[in-house]
């Protein structure tokens, strides 16, 4: 399409926007391209034949399937990618559910259905308009406005059905009116927007903004507003080109648009949050008061950058021996009550989102950093769990109560670690606090050992954190592990969460459980294959205790090996979610578990607090929601919002890592192979914790072939094996910041690395921030290697050395490989001689034909056929090449 054609097409699109223009535009496109358009699954006439086959295949898989698993079930050899695109379109149409990222089930499975939001029956003059959900079979149900998740007319949603036959929205599949960002693809049938979020699919452009043709440049990222018609078909109206402000603004705005993150709080929500008095009293209602704990030693331990403190701890001796561990959690539901604007907004957000140096909070700042934050030397409302432990540290009793505390001290993890190591400055902390911290740490380590004896799986992980300048550019990166100061708080919170879930069960009340299913058998088989190729016992994945022993054994492996195997084990697990049906928590080895300790930043914790207060008989909480259908809908909704937040955090981390590496093109980093494919290697860079791709074309030291059984690339001539766990020195060859893509190359044998902090910061003021948790080894520094260095011993070489020490004979495979190498060397030498002869002869022939051809081209004359040129010598050279092949 020429530029003039694009202009005329865009002008015609600019004339109309909204549903009427969308329908006209869609009709003209469909006439032009027939049934091959990108949105053919939206056709209201019914599912395409391939969709019917997919539905039949999915119906035979009650637990659902990924595109790859479904392709195998349908006996499709190489159609997983196309199948995945079709499944995403069927999700938006309402035929298929995406129960978790990348896993699909037919609509109706698990009590969830896809539907389109439309206007309900008209009411009277004083009755506000209602919404209803229209399902794929045509029937409709009214939508509960409190559990609508902000759905609007035209949205494609996923709903559960409550006990009163009302539709409860659990996920927004396609939100009309929301913004997307992507690039423009010009097609004869009309331009398309290709969103950066690939799950969106390609969206037809319905209209554009004025001067679009004068300002748009190929490859620029544009922002558009999604429009969904009554049939569930989506289009987009272009609104602007994504600006090129500072990285701080650009990255934050990009992630917010790409993931449809919430913005500012509505005025009525802010007003409600600011309306509460800062003067707190013990009285809750007539004849009911909170317990006064303001004279007890209560303290907090949090990260140095934390602003919202939602948990504090205390410790007292127990009569008869043992201890009473107090876990005091901010009483958020004292302010966020049901069926209020504040509660509706908190449910809509679901969780606080931590975007490196910014936070999108679940609650307004007046509560999250104010009345609900357990700052030192301020009276605060709490919901406290008093956990009785016997002399062996076993939980023997739980008591819950509404309390008022006044935190004495605020410690950071670093300060707590200094106390535990005995390295804190003299006089920095009072003696009673130091003694309590040490005793709680001892109790926490005992609790950790109890979990391990029960079969808990403790995976190795490290957080990477960027230091950003004032413009949002990363200037350095650090790593933070989980030491005993972190474990001190973690074990106390785990114990409280477990105790509260059991307490609710004892009161015959429902609970918003945090569940974790057993690992997927197919993924565990893949992990077992990796272990076998790595030289480990693959039968150790058969049960939790052998898997636990494997993870313990990995602690003795080199950092890279420990990193990759823990990482692959984690990827084999299913994701923990919220549910009202309890199946336990596999990784923690808990039979009952919920989230109770973070109500400032997690909506499920707030729901658990309300259920606890109902069990305590607190006035005003006897009518809180306990219908299982409604709680289950909120559980599914919260799980989806949590996944959205984690995805946004990962994307921003990836963009910052791309910016960090964009200024270090050509530098060499240590990496470890995470996976191999016919196209190349996925390598995790140890300094940034980010995965990057090493394409096959960059492996120039040999010709590599993918071996599926060994899950590795094997050099045809050198027999070099590049598989999972292989340590490599990689070079940054290319970086695309907008797509957060990094392309690596294989470094030379003796690379020189530039120090990590070599690039000067753009500003002297820097902000230290944290990034999403990513498994990584101990902190590394990119320092130049000395010239004289011992050769690196790979894992496989180490295994061979161990076998030699045990007196094992060399394997037949090794002898065959050595013989094959010798034969190849002889063949190479002969082929090289033949090639040299052929090259010389061909070069002579070319030299004879070159001058006349050049002169004749200049004169415009036909080229003569020269005897002995490419007609003879050239054909002989080609014949020799064919014979050698």
What does this entry look like structurally?
The structure is a single chain. The chain is α+β, with helices and mostly antiparallel strands. It has 21 helices and 37 strands. The strands form 11 sheets. Strands 5-4-3-6-7 form a 5-stranded antiparallel β-sheet. A 5-stranded mixed beta barrel has the order 8-9-10-12-11. A 5-stranded mixed β-sheet has the order 15-22-21-18-17, covered by helices on one side. Helix 4 (67-73) crosses helix 5 (80-93), helix 7 packs antiparallel against helix 18 and helix 20 runs antiparallel to helix 21.
Structure at a glance:
The protein is of the alpha+beta class and 885 residues long.
Enumerate the spans where pLDDT stays under 50 for 5 or more consecutive residues: 1-49, 750-793, 807-815, 840-885
Based on the structure, what is the oligomeric state of the protein chains?
single chain
Structural class: alpha+beta
Helix run count: 21
User: Beta fraction of the residues?
Assistant: 15-25%
Based on CA inertia axes, which overall geometry fits?
Answer: globular
Say how many strands there are.
Answer: 37
- What characterizes the major β-sheet? 5 strands, antiparallel
* Spatial gap, N to C terminus: 44 Å
Strand order of the largest sheet: 5-4-3-6-7
């Amino acid at each position: 399409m020429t530029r003039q054609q694009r202009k005329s097409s865009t002008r015609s699109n600019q004339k109309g926007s909204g549903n009427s223009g969308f329908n006209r535009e869609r009709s003209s496109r469909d006439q032009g391209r027939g049934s091959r358009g990108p949105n053919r699954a939206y056709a209201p006439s019914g599912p395409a034949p391939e969709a019917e086959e997919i539905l039949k295949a999915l119906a035979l898989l009650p637990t659902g399937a990924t595109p790859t698993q479904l392709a195998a079930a349908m006996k499709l050899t190489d159609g997983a990618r196309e199948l995945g695109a079709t499944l995403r379109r069927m999700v938006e149409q309402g035929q298929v559910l995406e129960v978790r990222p990348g896993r699909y089930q037919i609509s109706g499975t698990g009590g969830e259905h896809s539907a389109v939001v439309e206007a309900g029956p008209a009411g009277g003059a004083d009755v506000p308009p209602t919404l209803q959900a229209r399902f794929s079979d045509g029937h409709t149900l009214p939508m509960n406005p409190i559990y609508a998740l902000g759905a609007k007319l035209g949205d494609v949603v996923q709903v559960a059905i409550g006990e009163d036959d009302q539709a409860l929205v659990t996920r927004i599949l396609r939100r009309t009116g929301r913004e997307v960002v992507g690039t423009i693809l010009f097609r004869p049938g009309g331009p398309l927007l290709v969103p950066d979020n690939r799950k969106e699919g390609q969206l037809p452009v319905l209209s554009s903004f004025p001067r679009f043709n004068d300002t748009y440049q190929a490859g620029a990222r544009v922002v558009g507003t999604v429009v969904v018609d009554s049939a569930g078909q989506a289009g987009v109206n272009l609104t602007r080109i994504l600006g090129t402000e500072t990285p701080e603004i650009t990255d934050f705005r990009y992630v917010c648009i790409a993931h449809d993150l919430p913005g500012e709080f509505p005025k009525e929500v802010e007003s409600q949050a600011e309306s509460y008095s800062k003067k707190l009293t013990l009285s809750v209602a007539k004849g009911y008061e909170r317990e006064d704990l303001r004279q007890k030693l209560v303290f907090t331990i949090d990260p140095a950058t934390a602003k919202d403190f939602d948990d504090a701890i205390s410790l007292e001796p127990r009569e008869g021996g043992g201890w009473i561990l107090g876990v005091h959690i901010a009483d958020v539901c004292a302010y966020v009550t049901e069926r209020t604007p504040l509660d509706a907004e908190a449910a809509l957000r679901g969780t606080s989102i931590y975007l490196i140096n910014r936070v999108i909070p679940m609650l307004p700042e007046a509560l999250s950093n104010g009345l609900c934050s357990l700052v030192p030397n301020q009276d605060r409302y709490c919901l406290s769990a008093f956990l009785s432990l016997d002399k062996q540290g076993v939980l023997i009793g739980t008591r819950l109560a509404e309390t008022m505390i006044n935190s004495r001290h605020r410690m950071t993890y670093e300060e707590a670690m200094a106390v535990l190591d005995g390295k804190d400055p003299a006089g920095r902390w009072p003696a009673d606090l130091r003694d309590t911290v040490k005793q709680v740490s001892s109790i926490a380590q005992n609790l950790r050992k109890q979990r391990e004896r029960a079969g808990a799986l403790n995976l190795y992980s490290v957080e990477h954190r960027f230091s950003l300048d004032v413009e949002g550019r990363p200037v350095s990166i650090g790593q933070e592990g989980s030491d005993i100061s972190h474990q001190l708080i973690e074990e106390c919170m785990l114990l409280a969460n477990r105790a509260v879930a059991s307490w609710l069960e004892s009161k015959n009340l429902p609970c918003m459980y945090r569940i974790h299913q057993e690992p997927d058998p197919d993924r565990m088989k893949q992990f077992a294959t990796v272990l076998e190729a790595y030289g480990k016992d693959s039968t150790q994945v058969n049960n939790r205790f052998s898997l636990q022993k494997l993870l313990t054994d990995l602690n003795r492996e080199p950092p890279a090996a420990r990193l990759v195997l823990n990482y692959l084990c984690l990827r084999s697990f299913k994701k923990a979610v919220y549910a009202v049906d309890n199946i336990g928590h596999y990784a923690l080895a808990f039979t009952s578990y919920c989230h109770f300790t973070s109500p400032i930043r997690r909506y499920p914790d707030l729901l658990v607090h309300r259920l606890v207060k109902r069990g305590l008989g607190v006035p005003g909480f006897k009518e809180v929601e306990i219908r299982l259908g409604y709680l289950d809908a909120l559980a599914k909704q919260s799980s989806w919002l949590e996944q959205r937040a984690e995805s946004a955090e990962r994307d921003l981390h990836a963009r910052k890592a791309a910016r960090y590496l964009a200024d270090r093109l050509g530098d060499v980093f240590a990496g470890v192979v995470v996976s191999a494919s016919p196209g190349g290697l996925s390598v995790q860079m140890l300094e940034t914790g980010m995965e990057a791709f090493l394409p096959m074309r960059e492996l120039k030291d040999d010709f590599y072939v993918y071996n599926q059984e060994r899950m590795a690339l094997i050099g045809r001539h050198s027999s070099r094996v590049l598989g999972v766990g292989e340590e490599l020195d990689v070079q940054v060859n290319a970086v695309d910041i907008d797509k957060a893509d990094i392309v690596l190359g294989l470094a030379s044998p003796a690379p020189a690395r530039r120090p990590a902090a070599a690039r000067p910061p753009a500003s002297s003021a820097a902000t230290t921030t944290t990034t999403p948790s990513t498994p990584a080894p101990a902190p590394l520094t990119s320092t130049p290697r000395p010239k004289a260095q011992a050769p690196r011993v790979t894992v496989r070489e180490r295994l061979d050395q161990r076998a030699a020490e045990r007196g094992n004979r060399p394997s037949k495979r090794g002898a065959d490989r050595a013989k094959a190498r010798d034969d190849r060397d002889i063949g190479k030498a002969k082929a090289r001689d033949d090639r040299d002869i052929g090259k010389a002869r061909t070069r002579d022939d070319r030299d004879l034909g070159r001058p006349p051809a050049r002169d004749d081209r200049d004169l415009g004359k036909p080229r003569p056929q020269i005897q002995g040129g490419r007609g003879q010598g050239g054909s002989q050279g080609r014949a020799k090449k064919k014979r050698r092949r």
